[in-house]
Amino acid sequence: MKRITIMVLISVFILGIAGVSAAVNIPGSETDPVVTKSYVDSKVSYLPVKLEAGQTLIGDEGTEIILRSGEATAIDNGANGVSDISAGKDLMTGNSVAANHLLLIPRKDGRGIMVSTEAWVIIRGNYTIQ
Question: What is the CATH code for 47-129?
């Protein structure tokens, strides 16, 4: 009798754990949301963008920029620069942006790049062109 009681308790415990773990991973639930391919692509893909001489590209928080061709300089926010991840330094206004370096805009506070020639960048994240 004691053996049967222990077996029943163990079975109930195992089934309870299985039920909780299954409930946590229900597709479409808050813990496992369903997203579209276009949403994922917009978050993980870089987009090519052409800029004309004199234009500025201002990034939002978390925007990543890579200069592929042309010449550009950084635009800081007056206190902190644009993060050049490749070089491990901040670029202040007027500092040249090196081609193929990964730049990160840490906050939505007016930081970005200004191109002095026609330029191509690849970018991930939100931005505005002025």
Answer: 2.60.120.1030
